[in-house]
Amino acid sequence: MTGGFSHNGKTLLSGVDPAGRADRIADAVAVRDRTLYLCPSPLFGYGLERLLSRIADTPNSALLCIEADPQLFALSQEHFLQTLKDSPRLRLTNQCEEAALCALLRNEWGPRVFRHVELVRLSGGWQLFPALYDSLARSLQREIAIDWGNAMTLANLGRLYIRNALRNLALIPRCPSLGQLSFDGDPVLVLGAGPSLDTTLDALQARFDTAYRLPETRPFRIVCVDTCLPALRERDITPDLVVILESQHWNLRDFTGLSGWNVPAALDISALPRSGNVLAGSLYLFFTPWTQLRIFRRLVSAELLPTAVPPLGSVGLSAVSIARQLTRGTIITAGLDFSFTLDSFHARSTPGHLGRLNRQNRFASLLDPQTAFSDKVVSTVSKTGGQVLSNPSMKNYRNLFEREFGSAADDGATNRIFDIAVSGLPLGVPCLSLQDALDVLSGGIRSTTIRSDLSDCSGLTEKLRAFIQSEQEHLSLLRNMLTAEVPMDHAALDALIDECDYLWAHFPDYAAAGRRPDRAELETGSPSAISFLKRLRVEIDPFLRLWNMTLREIADL
Fold first, then answer.
1. For the chain, how big is the Rg over CA atoms in Å?
2. Beta partners for 40?
3. In sequence order, which residues have a C-beta less than 8 Å from that of residue 169 and are 6 or more positions away?
4. What range defines the domain where residue 408 resides?
């Protein structure tokens, strides 16, 4: 090409050696492994072959070419060399919606392949949509960071998640699935434990006096996170449902002094089992798939897995997701701040706030300078225009909230999720004034429907017992192969390792990636395979004991 190339009034390719210029740009790119090179508006594909050849020695790097203009996308499809189209290291897409582009990344290359995203402008086509391409690069980098963060969480807590889940399976014959509860069209107030919760609860008291305290006397539903419970009890407010997600023992401080309180609870099967035994209300089970495991598929096939809730990483986000499943009506959030101030980190009477009060003395104030003045803390504008503090973790959850709830409606109608304009970060959903939110809540009509059929309790018990015995047989056979008590069958071993993936999904070098030594490595006894099998052997006996504990609990029903 010698005459250049223009589109929509912009010169996108030079008239002087555009292919050579693109190759020189490709030569100047810093090549490193585990990098996704994002090439906006590749046009005729100049420079891509050169860049592909440069990353040939980096097995975990790839090129993603994206074109936002329909005409230019068709141009690229027509003029890309066949070698570019056939390369497994390069993809061309016109997908410019953030969530779909992140899904494409996962589908094409899988989890935990890349660590970095680098924007490479091989042509001038990026000038047509510069802000869009920059935004997509940031979104992909954020997605990659979340992916690795999830892997770290799985490495640290994955073993605890599955241990809790296997213990909580004993609840299935006597506790209904969350899918058996419905709030019909009632408005729902979802409460988090952020500082703005106090303002909302004060306003509720001023509007409804004592009528809002009990489920049967208020015209709306309250779904809260477990950390809110002490603050609600302090004000004599009984929620309609509390969401329990936390898997660790420190979660029990949320229930201090609340034993026997008649509050229905939604318990994730990976949550701490003891947390489901404190309150006296009905217990509903749900399931958060924290990673992909074969045992989940078997539980689904056996019809033993309760209602699924998307894995959102935050009990506040999970509470909103559950509310969206329970009601067709309006959902209003409060206390989901994802921010704090110098002297306010949680709502009054929550465990975090009480802990600060208890530690206060002449040498320790209510302020937490280590948190408030950390180099990761940033000052940002709240939804009311004031200044609040936040950190990267909170901002990531806020961004996830917007991605999950803030754009298209969840039911094909006008979005029905709103936030209250009190304090905290904007959540990406419409904001209501406090008075408007109270007007919406006061217009509700209670019409609860609970569909709960436990008549086949004995059938569920027997089905669960048979499932556990089958799992124990798998583990025993795997152990016997690894200890040479039965002859080694590499095909059977390979299948058993996959079937019992909950034994090793939390290993740091395999967490969240779905990868482990392949059959060839197992047969040849490579060092990595031997290390993997030794760690696998250590996991088997504790899980056999855990299955026995679950069987004993079932027998006590």
1. 27
2. 66
3. 269, 304, 464, 468, 550
4. 175-450
Check the CA dihedral 165-170-175-179 and report its sign.
Answer: positive
- Number of folded domains that form the chain: 3
Residue 163 lies in a domain: no
Q: How far is CA 312 from CA 12, 154, 371, 416, 421, in A?
A: 41, 14, 24, 19, 23
E strand or H helix at 104, and its extent? Answer: helix 98-109
| Residue 446 confidence (pLDDT) above 70 | no
- Same domain for 320 and 398? yes
The answer to whether residue 352 is domain-embedded is yes
The pTM of the full predicted model, rounded to 2 decimals, is 0.83
Percent of all residues in the chain with a pLDDT value above 70, rounded to a whole number: 92
Taking the mean position of all CA atoms in its chain, how far away is CA 373?
28
Residue where one domain finishes, among candidates 403, 431, 450: 450
Environment class of residue 528 by beta-carbon count within 10 Å: exposed (0-12), middle (13-18) or buried (19+)? exposed
Residue at a domain's end among 450, 472, 488 = 450
In a shared domain, residues 214 and 136: no
Q: Is 341 helix (H, G, I), strand (E, B) or coil?
A: strand
> Which has the closest alpha carbon to 270: 253, 251, 248?
248
Domain for residue 160, yes or no? no
Q: Which of 151, 77, 163 is nearest to 114 (CA)?
A: 151
Is 157 among the domain residues? no
Highest mean pLDDT among 11-15, 229-233, 509-513: 229-233
Distance (Å, whole) CA 357 – CA 224: 23
**Are 544 and 420 members of one domain?**
no
508 and 425 within one domain: no
User: pLDDT value at position 449?
Assistant: 47
User: Residues near 28 by Cβ (< 8 Å), separated by ≥ 6?
Assistant: none
Domain shared by 397 and 280, yes or no: yes
Q: Considering only CA atoms, which of 176, 412, 427, 238 is closest in space to residue 317?
A: 427
